[in-house]
Write a structure and sequence with these properties.
The complex is a heterodimer of chains A (156) and B (373).
Chain A: H1 2-13, E1 20-21, E2 31-34, H2 40-49, E3 53-61, E4 66-73, E5 81-87, H3 103-114, H4 151-155
Parallel strand pairs in A: 2-5
Antiparallel strand pairs in A: 1-2, 3-4, 4-5
Helix pairs in contact in A: 1-2
Chain B: E1 3-8, E2 11-18, E3 30-36, E4 39-46, H1 54-60, H2 67-70, H3 78-93, H4 99-127, H5 132-152, E5 161-162, E6 165-166, H6 172-197, H7 200-206, H8 214-220, H9 225-228, H10 236-239, H11 260-284, E7 304-312, E8 315-323, E9 331-335, H12 337-343, H13 345-348, H14 354-364, H15 368-372
Antiparallel strand pairs in B: 1-2, 2-3, 3-4, 5-6, 7-8, 8-9
Helix pairs in contact in B: 3-4, 4-5, 4-11, 4-14, 5-6, 6-11, 11-14
Classes of the chains: A alpha+beta (156), B alpha+beta (373).
Chain lengths: 156, 373
C-alpha cells in the first residue's frame, strides 16, 4: 500500500505537521498536509520515491497570502493526497519541475495566472496567455471580483 | 508552413512550425519542431489559442450559471464534464440524487464517451491516410447524437445534468434508440476490426511508434487510455467509483507496449466496454424521480472545498471548488487530462520522424480547448 508508505514518510519528514484526514470524501483526498515553503521539494521527492504522480498544482489568492495546493495520486484506489503550502504575496517558492516533469507546465500556468515565481524553473514563459501578457488574471485584484477574503474566513 | 533555416556548427537544424491551422492538430495547437533532416530534435508545443478564461468565469458566476461552460471545455465529451461538475457541487452542497437520475447520467455519459471515441477513431485514421473508416465512424456517431438529442436537445455542447438530477426523464423512445444502437454496434465492431485493426498498413504505421513507458507516464501525469496502453489498469470509474459504476461488470482494457497501436486498441475495446455498461444500466434502470425537487435556484454551499475526480473520455478530470459560503465559488479550478497527455510529447517526439509525429499526436487524442480552458 503506497498510501501507508507515504504516510510514514511524511510523518518522519514533517513531524510538526499533522496529517488532516478526511472521512467524508468531500475533499477527494485521503488526507492533507501543510508544509513550509522550504519543505515542498523534500515532500515532492518523497512522493516521487513512493511512486506517486503529480495530478495538479493550483493556487488560491487570499488578502493575506497565496496558498499553493498540490494534488498527488497513485494508481491504487483512493490514494489522493493534498499538500498545501502557504506562500506570501512576495515570496518565491522553489520549483519541483526537476522532480516531476509535469510540474514544468503546471508551474508556468500558476505563474502566468497568479504571478507566483518559482525559483529554479528556467522556463516561466506564459503558457495559455499571450507571450507578452504582464497581467495575472486569476488574482482577486484583476477584473470583476465577487469577494476578496483573508484565508481564515474560509479555512478558519 | 513557415520554415526557418539556421546552421549550427556543421549540423543543419531546421525549425518547422506545425499548426496552428494544421488539420491533424485537431483544434488550434502549434508545435515548434527543430528538425535534423527528417528527424525531430526538439519539440515545443505552443498552446493557449483557445483560452477563454473558464476558471475566472467560474468565480464570477453562480454555480448554476457555470453549467453551460462545462461542456465547452472538452467539447467532444461535454456531457462527461457537465456530469462531473454537478457531482462536485452536489458533494459540496450535500444534495441527494435519485437512483434513476444516477442511471440516466451513466447511460448518457457512456453514450457520449463512445461518440467521443468514434470521432477520434475516424479522424485519427484520416490523419494517417485512411478515409473510409472516417465515414463509417461518423455514420455510427450520428446515431448517438440523434439519441442524445431526444433527451438533451443538443448535439455537442450538452447541458443535461442539473444539481440533484437531470433536466428531462428518458422515455421509451430513447431506450429503444439506445438498444437499437447497441444492436447495430455488435456487428460494427467486427467490421472495424476487419477494416482497420487487421490492416497491415495501419499496423506498420502505429506499432512501436511513440512509445510511452510507465515511468514517463507517471512523470507527466498521463492518464486515461494513454496510460492504460502502458499496462496500468487505472480508471477513476474503478478506483473511486462515482454514481453507480460499482454496480456494473466491465473490464478495463490495457495494453502492453504503450505505443500508438496499443492506444488505438485500448480505445477500441473501451467503446465495447461502454456498450456493456449501457446495456446493464438499461437492464437495472429503476423507476422513480429523475430530479430532486426543491433544490434552491441560488445555491450557497457551506464554506470549504471539494475535489471531485471523474473519468472523461481522455482520462482523469477533476473539479476543485472552494466555497466561501456565497452563491459563487471563491476558486474554480479544473484539472484536465489532455494537459499532461500533451506535455508528454516533449519527451516522446524527439528522435522520431515528422511523419510519425502526426501518427503520435493523433494517437494521444488531445482536445486543445480543454487544455486552454
Amino acid at each position: 500500500m503506497r498510501i501507508k508508505d507515504i504516510e510514514s514518510r511524511m510523518q518522519n519528514k514533517f513531524p510538526d505537521s499533522p496529517l488532516k484526514g478526511d472521512d467524508t470524501g468531500v475533499t477527494g483526498a485521503k488526507w492533507s498536509i501543510s508544509v513550509p515553503i522550504s519543505g515542498i521539494r523534500d515532500a515532492a521527492m518523497e512522493f516521487d520515491a513512493a511512486g506517486f504522480f503529480l495530478e495538479s498544482i493550483t493556487a488560491l489568492d487570499f488578502q493575506d497570502t497565496f496558498e499553493l495546493v498540490y494534488h498527488f495520486n497513485c494508481y491504487e484506489p483512493g490514494s489522493r493526497v493534498t499538500v498545501r503550502m502557504l506562500c506570501g504575496h512576495d515570496q518565491v517558492p522553489p520549483t519541483i519541475c526537476d522532480i516531476f516533469r509535469s510540474a514544468g507546465w503546471l508551474e508556468r500556468e500558476v505563474h502566468e495566472f497568479f504571478g507566483i515565481k518559482f525559483s529554479g524553473n528556467e522556463d516561466l514563459r506564459p503558457l495559455l496567455l499571450p507571450e507578452d501578457a504582464d497581467y495575472h488574471p486569476l488574482r482577486k485584484t484583476f477584473g470583476r471580483v465577487g469577494a476578496y477574503h483573508k484565508r481564515e474566513v474560509i479555512y478558519g | 508552413m513557415d520554415e526557418l533555416e539556421k546552421i549550427e556548427a556543421d549540423d543543419r537544424v531546421y525549425s518547422l512550425n506545425l499548426g496552428p491551422q494544421h488539420p491533424s492538430t485537431h483544434g488550434v495547437l502549434r508545435i515548434l519542431l527543430d528538425l535534423d533532416g527528417e528527424y525531430i530534435v526538439k519539440c515545443d508545443p505552443v498552446i493557449g489559442y483557445g483560452h477563454r478564461g473558464h476558471e475566472k468565469m467560474g468565480e464570477n458566476r453562480q454555480y448554476k450559471q457555470f453549467l453551460p461552460n462545462t461542456s465547452r471545455m472538452d467539447y467532444l465529451s461535454g456531457l462527461l464534464y457537465n456530469h462531473g461538475f454537478v457531482l462536485a457541487v452536489e458533494k459540496l452542497a450535500g444534495i441527494k440524487v435519485p437512483e434513476r437520475a444516477k442511471y440516466i447520467r451513466v447511460i448518457a455519459s457512456e453514450l457520449n464517451r463512445i461518440s467521443s471515441h468514434l470521432l477520434w477513431f475516424g479522424t485519427y485514421l484520416l490523419d494517417i491516410g485512411g478515409i473510409t473508416p472516417f465515414l463509417y465512424a461518423f455514420d455510427d456517431r450520428e446515431h448517438i447524437l440523434d439519441t442524445l438529442d431526444t433527451i438533451t436537445g443538443s448535439r455537442l455542447t450538452y447541458s443535461y445534468c442539473r444539481f440533484g438530477g437531470v433536466t428531462r426523464d428518458i422515455d421509451s423512445k430513447f431506450i429503444d434508440m439506445t438498444r437499437a444502437f447497441l444492436k447495430r454496434m455488435e456487428s460494427r465492431w467486427a467490421d472495424y476490426e476487419a477494416l482497420v485493426s487487421k490492416n497491415v498498413i495501419f499496423i506498420h504505421r502505429t506499432r512501436d511508434v511513440g512509445v510511452i513507458d510507465v515511468n514517463l507516464a507517471r512523470q507527466y501525469g498521463v492518464t486515461g487510455p494513454n496510460l492504460r496502453a502502458c499496462g496500468v489498469a487505472f480508471d477513476v470509474r474503478r478506483s473511486e467509483p462515482y454514481e453507480v459504476y460499482d454496480r456494473f461488470d466491465f473490464e478495463i482494457p490495457t495494453g502492453t507496449r504503450g505505443d500508438a497501436l496499443d492506444r488505438y486498441d485500448v480505445r477500441f475495446r473501451e467503446m465495447q466496454q461502454s456498450c456493456r455498461i449501457i446495456e446493464q444500466a438499461l437492464e437495472q434502470l429503476p423507476e422513480g424521480e429523475f430530479l430532486t425537487p426543491k433544490v434552491p435556484q441560488k445555491l450557497s454551499p457551506p464554506k470549504g472545498e471539494v475535489y471531485t475526480a471523474f473519468e472523461s473520455a481522455r482520462g482523469l478530470t477533476a473539479y476543485y471548488l472552494v466555497s466561501d459560503g456565497s452563491p459563487a465559488p471563491y476558486r474554480c479550478h479544473i484539472r484536465v487530462p489532455s494537459f499532461g497527455n500533451l506535455n508528454v510529447l516533449n519527451d516522446v517526439l524527439p528522435g522520431t520522424m515528422v511523419a510519425d509525429a502526426i501518427a503520435i499526436l493523433g494517437s494521444i487524442d488531445v482536445v486543445i480547448p480543454e487544455i486552454d480552458r
